[in-house]
């Protein structure tokens, strides 16, 4: 059952495709619903109609990749003639030459890795070696050993649930839905002991005399409520006919002692509170602080006696119907996502998308520098980080091409002009200038499988997920200082993470627990917004929707002086915190003046958390990226998402939730893991 806060928007996708022309997406905010995508209309001149009725971009016809769910966009295509820089697969499809003989089968028939096409190369990927506490899936990836035979398929091919014996528990134990056993006395005790919380479901205690139409005698039996004070003694102890209580209106004397409303009953009375108040001490009503719920309003919540009021920050105005904050100005927003070989662009609310960056090998992470209109992405197979101007994405430049192995997470500091990335194989978090000319390993201890990363350059903090054993979410300053663990409980496979700068809340998805959760940037006010295996079958990435215009005005490039090599913003913990600290390359260290660099190995900033055991996890998941701030959330089941507002400083606000689960996403994910 999906669980959402009242301030969140529920979006349901009735089709398994990615917002195609037959999709039905409905947004509901509190008590208001509106259809965003519901109509079936003719394809435009720039679109191709599939035999199934679906519309796709004409640019995707005969591009050797099926975009129609029935494959009709590739049905009647002439045999392609590959360019000199391409390799022609045995089935005539062309792929870039650099993809051939690299150990990954990019041709559907695998011919780019056949021995006869790769002289002197085995054409086989090295055998995956999992650690002692891990399980090797038949599809090649490693998952936690504790996930073997737990009732949920975590391998891409579900092989972790093959050949499992039926779980059994002792007679005094409770069998969880995931196959584990917990003491039977802990069922329905209010505290979940099963990992899937199944021991606390269906725990409604039914009382024999429950309901307004029943009355329980002091002697224990139940009678109909209309038989109370009717002159007939129906209870064996006559407790239904007390002489001093029947036909007496206690509310006539001092309002029954009630602070607000006194309601007379056949026997006795009760105090009733108006809306927005709750009863304390059985007689007095106290105001309910609705603003204690962090998701009550999208930006500002003002508590009032018996009610509350939502307000917006500068640059936004309140939608009086939905109570959401909308940007005063700004152009249409669009979504960037990867399909492994391409970065595509889709206007929000549109049914079509176009290829923005093509001829990629394995794009897994995206982010956007809105200030400079520049896109950054990492390629897992090529082990590089690239960037390109949004106006000229066909001519990318290489930012990082060495000392990098598995860059699964990427985030852009749009104020200070740096990029941050995680490396799950090297178990590090690093920083570099936007052109890659200066770089530094910030954290190299206590990491297992760092995954997604997001930055808050206004307060100089970064946040990341680690799905090692145990999994956690951590934060530190943008210089690696003041490292703190935020989430260590009820977390198993955290993938995407994003930040709402305005409300100061982090959102993340957990692929093992099938949850979307949020927490304050200081670790307070944790909420589970969605827990649903169907809607969040394998969530991988999410992004906050939109850029905060007014806040961006203060996001001026900070040019700190005095550092010989690299200047990094320091976390603003209190009024005495430094504005920045200097850093040196990994093979050097800071001198006594803390500004210049001298020869010697430079240790990373000490962390508060102790190192943990090294771990492993499947490499087929994409990362979260997103815009700088705002309040809508976009989720991806198998593609990397990045949100931009036409790469401008436009905004609109509404805490809204978009769940994108589709066969298209699933297909690209399966294509990735199978290779």
TrEMBL record:
<feature type="disulfide bond">
    <location>
        <begin position="188"/>
        <end position="203"/>
    </location>
</feature>
<dbReference type="Pfam" id="PF07645">
    <property type="entry name" value="EGF_CA"/>
</dbReference>
<feature type="disulfide bond">
    <location>
        <begin position="82"/>
        <end position="94"/>
    </location>
</feature>
<dbReference type="GO" id="GO:0016324">
    <property type="term" value="C:apical plasma membrane"/>
</dbReference>
<dbReference type="InterPro" id="IPR000033">
    <property type="entry name" value="LDLR_classB_rpt"/>
</dbReference>
<dbReference type="GO" id="GO:0006898">
    <property type="term" value="P:receptor-mediated endocytosis"/>
</dbReference>
<feature type="disulfide bond">
    <location>
        <begin position="62"/>
        <end position="77"/>
    </location>
</feature>
<feature type="disulfide bond">
    <location>
        <begin position="217"/>
        <end position="235"/>
    </location>
</feature>
<feature type="domain" description="EGF-like">
    <location>
        <begin position="287"/>
        <end position="322"/>
    </location>
</feature>
<dbReference type="Pfam" id="PF00058">
    <property type="entry name" value="Ldl_recept_b"/>
</dbReference>
<feature type="disulfide bond">
    <location>
        <begin position="43"/>
        <end position="55"/>
    </location>
</feature>
<dbReference type="InterPro" id="IPR009030">
    <property type="entry name" value="Growth_fac_rcpt_cys_sf"/>
</dbReference>
<keyword id="KW-0254">Endocytosis</keyword>
<dbReference type="GO" id="GO:0005509">
    <property type="term" value="F:calcium ion binding"/>
</dbReference>
<feature type="domain" description="EGF-like">
    <location>
        <begin position="247"/>
        <end position="286"/>
    </location>
</feature>
<comment type="similarity">
    <text>Belongs to the LDLR family.</text>
</comment>
<feature type="disulfide bond">
    <location>
        <begin position="176"/>
        <end position="194"/>
    </location>
</feature>
<dbReference type="InterPro" id="IPR051221">
    <property type="entry name" value="LDLR-related"/>
</dbReference>
<feature type="disulfide bond">
    <location>
        <begin position="137"/>
        <end position="155"/>
    </location>
</feature>
<keyword id="KW-0245">EGF-like domain</keyword>
<feature type="disulfide bond">
    <location>
        <begin position="89"/>
        <end position="107"/>
    </location>
</feature>
<keyword id="KW-0677">Repeat</keyword>
<dbReference type="InterPro" id="IPR036055">
    <property type="entry name" value="LDL_receptor-like_sf"/>
</dbReference>
<feature type="disulfide bond">
    <location>
        <begin position="149"/>
        <end position="164"/>
    </location>
</feature>
<feature type="repeat" description="LDL-receptor class B">
    <location>
        <begin position="504"/>
        <end position="548"/>
    </location>
</feature>
<keyword id="KW-0812">Transmembrane</keyword>
<keyword id="KW-0732">Signal</keyword>
<dbReference type="InterPro" id="IPR049883">
    <property type="entry name" value="NOTCH1_EGF-like"/>
</dbReference>
<dbReference type="Pfam" id="PF00057">
    <property type="entry name" value="Ldl_recept_a"/>
</dbReference>
<protein>
    <submittedName>
        <fullName>Low density lipoprotein receptor b</fullName>
    </submittedName>
</protein>
<feature type="region of interest" description="Disordered">
    <location>
        <begin position="602"/>
        <end position="629"/>
    </location>
</feature>
<keyword id="KW-0675">Receptor</keyword>
<dbReference type="InterPro" id="IPR002172">
    <property type="entry name" value="LDrepeatLR_classA_rpt"/>
</dbReference>
<keyword id="KW-0325">Glycoprotein</keyword>
<feature type="repeat" description="LDL-receptor class B">
    <location>
        <begin position="373"/>
        <end position="416"/>
    </location>
</feature>
<feature type="disulfide bond">
    <location>
        <begin position="169"/>
        <end position="181"/>
    </location>
</feature>
<dbReference type="InterPro" id="IPR000742">
    <property type="entry name" value="EGF"/>
</dbReference>
<keyword id="KW-0472">Membrane</keyword>
<dbReference type="InterPro" id="IPR001881">
    <property type="entry name" value="EGF-like_Ca-bd_dom"/>
</dbReference>
<dbReference type="GO" id="GO:0042562">
    <property type="term" value="F:hormone binding"/>
</dbReference>
<dbReference type="InterPro" id="IPR018097">
    <property type="entry name" value="EGF_Ca-bd_CS"/>
</dbReference>
<feature type="repeat" description="LDL-receptor class B">
    <location>
        <begin position="460"/>
        <end position="503"/>
    </location>
</feature>
């Amino acid at each position: 059952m999906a669980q959402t806060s009242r301030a969140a928007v529920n979006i349901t996708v009735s089709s398994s495709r990615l917002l195609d022309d037959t999709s039905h997406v409905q947004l509901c905010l509190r008590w208001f619903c509106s259809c965003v995508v519901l109509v079936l209309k003719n394809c435009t001149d720039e679109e191709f109609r599939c035999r199934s009725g679906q519309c796709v971009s004409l640019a995707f016809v005969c591009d050797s990749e099926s975009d129609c769910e029935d494959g009709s966009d590739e049905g009647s295509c002439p045999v392609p003639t590959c360019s000199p820089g391409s390799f022609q697969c045995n089935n005539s499809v062309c792929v870039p030459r650099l993809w051939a003989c690299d150990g990954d089968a990019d041709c559907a028939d695998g011919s780019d890795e056949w021995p006869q096409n790769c002289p002197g190369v085995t054409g086989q990927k090295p055998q995956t070696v999992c650690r002692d506490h891990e399980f090797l899936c038949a599809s090649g990836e490693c998952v936690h050993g504790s996930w073997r035979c737990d009732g949920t398929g975590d391998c891409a091919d579900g092989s972790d649930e093959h050949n499992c014996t039926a779980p059994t528990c002792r007679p005094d134990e409770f069998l969880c839905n995931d196959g584990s056993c917990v003491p039977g006395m802990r069922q329905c005790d209010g505290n979940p002991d099963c990992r899937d919380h199944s021991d606390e479901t269906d725990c409604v205690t039914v009382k024999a005399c429950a309901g307004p139409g029943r009355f329980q005698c002091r002697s224990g039996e139940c009678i109909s409520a209309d038989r109370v004070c009717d002159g007939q003694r129906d209870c064996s102890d006559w407790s239904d006919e007390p002489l001093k209580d029947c036909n007496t209106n206690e509310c006539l004397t001092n309002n029954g002692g009630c602070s607000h409303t006194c309601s007379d009953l056949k026997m006795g009375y009760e105090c009733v509170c108006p809306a927005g108040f709750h009863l304390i001490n059985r007689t007095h009503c106290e105001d309910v602080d609705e603003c204690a719920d962090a998701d009550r309003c999208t930006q500002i919540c003002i508590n009032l006696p018996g009610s509350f009021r939502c307000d917006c920050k500068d640059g936004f105005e309140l939608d009086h119907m939905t109570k959401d904050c909308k940007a005063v100005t700004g152009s249409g927003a669009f979504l960037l996502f990867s399909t492994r070989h391409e970065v595509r662009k889709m206007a929000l609310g549109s049914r079509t998308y176009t290829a923005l960056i093509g001829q990629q090998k394995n794009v897994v992470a995206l982010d956007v520098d809105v200030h400079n209109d520049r896109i950054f992405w990492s390629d897992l197979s090529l082990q590089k980080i690239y960037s390109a101007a949004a106006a000229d994405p066909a001519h990318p430049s290489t930012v990082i091409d060495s000392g990098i192995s598995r860059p699964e997470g990427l985030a852009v500091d749009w104020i200070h002009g740096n990029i941050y990335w995680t490396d799950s194989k090297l178990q590090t978090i690093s920083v570099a200038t936007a052109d890659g000319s200066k770089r530094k390993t910030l954290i190299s201890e206590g990491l297992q499988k760092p995954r997604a990363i997001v930055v808050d350059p206004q307060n100089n903090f970064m946040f990341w997920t680690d799905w090692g054993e145990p999994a956690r979410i951590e934060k530190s300053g943008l210089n690696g200082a003041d490292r703190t663990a935020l989430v260590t409980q009820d977390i198993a496979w955290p993938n995407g993470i994003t930040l709402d700068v305005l409300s100061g809340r982090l959102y993340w998805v957990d692929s093992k627990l099938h949850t979307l959760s949020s927490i304050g940037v200081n670790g307070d006010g944790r909420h589970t917004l969605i827990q649903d295996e169907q809607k969040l079958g394998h969530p991988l990435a999410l992004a906050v929707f939109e850029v905060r215009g007014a806040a961006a005005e203060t996001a001026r490039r900070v040019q700190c002086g005095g550092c010989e090599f690299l200047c990094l913003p320091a976390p603003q913990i209190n009024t005495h915190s430094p504005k920045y600290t200097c850093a040196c390359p990994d093979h050097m260290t800071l001198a006594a003046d803390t500004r210049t660099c001298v020869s010697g190995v430079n240790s990373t900033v000490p962390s508060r958390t102790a190192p943990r055991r090294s771990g492993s996890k499947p490499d087929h998941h994409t990362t979260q990226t997103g815009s700088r701030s705002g309040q809508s959330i976009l989720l991806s089941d198998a593609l990397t998402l990045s949100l931009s507002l036409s790469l401008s400083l436009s905004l609109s606000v509404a805490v809204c939730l978009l769940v994108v689960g589709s066969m298209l996403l699933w297909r690209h994910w399966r294509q990735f893991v199978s290779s």
